[in-house]
Every structure is written in C-alpha cells, then in structure tokens.
Design brief:
D-Maltodextrin-Binding Protein, domain 2; single chain; 329 residues; 2 domains; 10 strands; 11 helices; globular
Length: 329
C-alpha cells in the first residue's frame, strides 16, 4: 500500500496536470471561437483625418465579416506614439488592434520609443497606399510647383507648411521638397490632418503636403487649392493634378500607406483570420470604389509582406531624415 504522503504527492501531480489541460483548452480553442466579443481598432490620430476616415470605412466593412462590432477608438498624441504604446501593452488576444500608417516606420529614426516597432507588433495586413496632395490657401499667389518654388526663394523662411505631426509623412514630404527644390520653409506640426487643414483654410498657414482624403473635399469646395501630388504617377482621383516630379522637382516621390497590426504574441491563426477578412474586403468593388474616391489606393498583403514593407520603410525614412536634416519640432 502506498504511504499517505506519496498519495498526496500523486494527487497534487494529477491536479497540476489537469490544471495545465484545462488552461490550454481555451487557448487552443480561442482562434476557432474568435471573435467572441467586439474588436477595437485604435487610431493614433485625431478624428476627421485621412487615417481616421479609412479606419472607420474598414471597421464598417469588417464588422459583418467577422460577426462582431468593430469599434474605432482615437488615441492621438506624440505623433502616434501614445496610441501605439497603448496597443503594444494591450493583451495579445486579437481584440485590440492598431491602425498603422507610415509614421510607424518613421518614428524609430525620430524618437526614443517606449516600444519595439519590429518585435512589439504582429503585422496583420496592408489596407491602402496613400498619396499626398500639395495644397495651399487659395489666396496664396501660386498655381504650380514652379510658382511655389519661386515664391519660397523670394521669401526664404517665411512660407509655412503644416503637417499632421512632427515626423509624419506630411512633415518629411515637406522636408524632402525643401531639400530637393533648394528652398527654406517653416514647418508647423499639428495633432492631426483636420486641424492642420483648418488653419490653412483660415489663412494661418500657407500650405501642406496632406493626405488626400480630408483635403479633396476642401479642394472641391474651393476652400483649398491643389497644386500637385507626391507620387511618381498621377492619382486617378485627381487625374488633372500633376505630380511634383513632372511639375519641376525631378525624382521627387513620397507614398505613404495604412494597415492593421496587433500586439506581438497574438496567435498566428487569429492574425490569419483577420488578414483573410481584410484581404477579402479590399478586393470588393464597393470598398475599392469608396476609398479610391477618397484618394486612397486600395492594396492588400499577407502579414509577412506587410512586415517586409514596414522594415523597408524604416530604412528608407531613416535615409530621408538623415539627408534632409529633419528634426522633431
């Protein structure tokens, strides 16, 4: 007969094993039952900007696809660092996602970050490419890139350009323009596209290299003047507007992007399920037509492809920052 002490040890071991089994069952089944509650997409920008508009368009299409409510939560601040840090420290269960933009790849060269851009996140999917639109206050006496360069050279340091954050693509697009065109302009950072464009409309700032979505309606209403696009080719939504390169700054090109990421450690099958849903949404005519009209270029990817894009951009923007001498404001 086994001594009582050994029986107790046996029972403790069995209980421990059963505990492991019971603990692992929900984890193994979580991907099959995901999502069992609403999913949150954190947008690290103010409401009303291009990223916010695209995130809400995606959330509306994603909700019926996954059978749960998809909530968009704006957490602006610190050129997206505030919202990004929040998601990095969130549970890696697929219920808190991050709407990422090109700033995600720029910030490592600009700031000391409280998170690891590469190892702190799991890329989910690319959603769209984002051309930038060079817009001015209608009263500014320029109608082309050549006019703008001439005015900037006549008034060195006097022209101001707004961006939706220090270190954002809109900021670096302006710095690259200054460097390549040989002009001096003053950067004015804002906490989002909406307040930046509002100040241009009001005449407080001269111009901006803005994301197209919030700028196009203001151009169409006559409250802003469109001068050029930042991409190598013309944008279908604004096909009459020349590129900055063809309008006088040869070789100029800036193309931003938007996508979805999750905290590192999110189960791969949950990432795969989200990726499949997003890729299917981006492929629909309804979604493509809707975001194309807003100035986005719909584009999807696998998680690995999106991760490679992020890493390539980290290298590219580091080079632009070094060559242009751009610094946080």
């Amino acid at each position: 007969m086994m001594p009582q002490r050994n029986w107790k040890r046996c029972l403790a071991a069995i209980a421990g094993l059963l505990g492991v089994v019971f603990l692992t069952v929900p984890a193994a089944a979580s991907a099959d039952t995901y999502p069992a509650k609403p999913v949150k997409i954190v947008v690290p920008y103010t409401p009303g900007g291009g990223a916010d508009i695209l995130a809400r368009t995606l959330a509306a299409a994603l909700a019926p696809k996954i059978g749960q409510q998809v909530i968009v939560e704006n957490r602006p601040g610190g050129n997206t660092i505030t919202g990004t840090e929040f998601v990095a420290s969130s549970p890696h269960d697929g219920y808190t996602l991050l709407f990422v933009a090109a700033s995600f790849s720029i910030n490592p060269s600009f700031y000391k970050l409280p998170y690891d851009t590469i190892n702190g996140f799991a890329p989910v999917a690319l959603v769209a490419l984002v051309p930038l639109l060079l817009v001015t206050n209608p009263a500014l006496p320029v109608n082309s890139v050549k006019d703008l360069i001439a005015l900037a050279k006549a008034k060195p340091g006097e022209l101001t350009f707004a961006s939706y954050g220090s270190g954002s693509p809109a900021h670096l697009a302006g710095e690259l323009f200054k460097s390549m065109a040989g002009v001096d302009m003053l950067h004015i950072p804002y906490k989002g596209s909406a307040p930046a464009l509002a100040d241009i409309v009001a005449g407080h700032v001269a111009l901006s290299f803005s994301s197209m979505s919030p700028a196009v309606p203001l151009v169409k209403s006559g409250r802003l003047k469109a001068i050029a696009v930042s991409t190598a080719r013309r944008v279908p939504a604004m096909k009459d507007i020349p590129t900055i390169a063809e309008a006088g700054v040869t070789g100029y090109e800036v193309l931003a992007w938007n996508g979805i990421a999750a905290p590192a450690g999110t189960p791969r099958d949950i990432v795969a399920k989200l990726n499949k849903a997003i890729v299917e949404i981006v492929a629909t005519t309804e979604f493509r037509d809707r975001i194309s009209a807003q100035g986005f270029e719909p584009e999807s990817s696998t998680p690995d492809e999106f991760g490679e894009l992020i890493q390539r951009d980290i290298i590219k923007w580091a080079r632009v920052i070094k060559e242009s001498g751009a610094k946080p404001d």
